[in-house]
Amino acid sequence: MVSQFYAHFFTFTWLSTCWTLVVLFISSCPLNTRIVGGQNAPPGNWPWQASLQSSGSHFCGGSLINSQLLLTASQASLTVSLGLQSLQGSNPNGVSRTVTNVIKHPNYNSRTNDNDICLLQLSSPVTFTDFIVPVCLAAPGSTFFSGVSSWVTGWGTIASGVSLPPPGNLMEVNVPIVGNRECNCNYGVGSITNNMICAGLRAGGKDSCQGDSGGPLVSKQGNRWILGGIVSFGNGCAQPNFPGVYTRMSQYQSWINNQITSSQPGFVTFTSTGTDSDLSISCAGLPLPPTTLPPTTTTTLPPTTTTTTAKREFLSCPDFNLKFPLKMRCFHIYSNVVVKSYLRYVSITSKMNLKYLK
C-alpha cells in the first residue's frame, strides 16, 4: 500500500481524544512512496491502524477512535488486533480484543456502497501507547480539495490478485484527493455520492486494494492526522483514471455520537487552502458546479464506460451461505471452491483451492 515520512526524533502529545505528532527535525524527513505502489510502514507511524481477523487470518482494516471503539466498513468481524507491525512473526506492541457489538449504518446500501461505515465495540478497553492511539475524525464542514495529500495504510494485496509477501508488514501509500466531480466522471455520473471521497493518481499505480477495506485514509493538518475516509471500493486496483473510493468521514459525526454514550471521539475540521480545481471538471451528464467559473478553466473529461467495481475486503461467507449482492473487492480461501464475482453475480467452480476476486 502506502508511503510515509521519517523523523529522527519525535514525541507524542495529546490534543482532546486524538493524536498529534510533534516532529523535531534533526535532518531531512523524506516521504517514502509505497499497498499498491506503497512500501513498508515504520513501526508506530500509524498507531490507530487495526487488523480485523477471522480464525487468525487478516481480512480487512479499521481505525481506533477511542479506547473501545473501532471504525471500519460495513461488515462483521470476530477479532481485532492493534499495534501490529506485521501479520506474522513477533509483535511485541500488539494487543487483541474480540468484538462484542457490531453497529452498521442503517442506510448502508450494498449495491451502491453508500454509507459504507460500521462501528465495532471491543470486549474491553485498550491502553494507549506509542503504538496504539486513536485517530482524529474529520468534522462536518471539512473541505478536501483535489490534490490534498493523503495516506492509506493496510495489509491488503499489493496488486489485484497479488498477496502481501511474508512477513506481511503494514504498508502505506501517499495518494492525492480526487474531487467528487472528477470521480463521478471516472465511475459514471451518479456513482459517487456526497457520502464518498476519492483518492488516487490519474496515471494509476498507487491505491488501496483487496484486504484494505475499512482501513484509514488520513491527511495531516498542522500536527494532527485526521481521518478523512474509510477504504470502500474501486475498479480493480491502481487503474488509470479510477481512483480508490472511500467513505467520507465528515458526513457521520451525528451518527457516531448517537451511538456513543461516553468517550466521544475527537472531531476536527479539515480545511483546504486555495481553490478547488475540481469545480472546473465537466463531463456528459454532470450538473454544473455551485460556483460559476470562466469557460477557459473548464476541463472536459471523455465519456465514461460501464465499470465493474470491487469492494476492498475479503469475502465473508461462513458455511458457504453466500450473501447477495456479493460484497465487492473481496477474496477468501475455501477448500475446493472458487468464488468469482462479476457485476455482483456469483459462480462457484469446484476443484480449485484459491482464487482472488477481482
UniProtKB/TrEMBL annotation:
UniProt entry keywords in alphabetical sequence: Disulfide bond, Glycoprotein, Hydrolase, Membrane, Protease, Serine protease, Signal, Transmembrane, Transmembrane helix
Keyword rRNA-binding listed: no
Listed transmembrane segments: 6-26
InterPro entries per record: Peptidase_S1_PA, Peptidase_S1_PA_chymotrypsin, Peptidase_S1A, Trypsin_dom, TRYPSIN_SER
Domain Peptidase S1 intervals: 35-261
GO biological process: proteolysis
Xref: Pfam families: Trypsin
The keyword Hydrolase belongs to this UniProt entry's keyword annotation: yes
Domain of life: Eukaryota
GO terms assigned for molecular function: serine-type endopeptidase activity
Entries under CDD domains matching the protein: Tryp_SPc
PANTHER family, per database record: CHYMOTRYPSIN-LIKE PROTEASE CTRL-1-RELATED, TRANSMEMBRANE PROTEASE SERINE
Protein known as: Peptidase S1 domain-containing protein
Natural source organism: Sander lucioperca (Pike-perch)
Taxon lineage: Eukaryota, Metazoa, Chordata, Craniata, Vertebrata
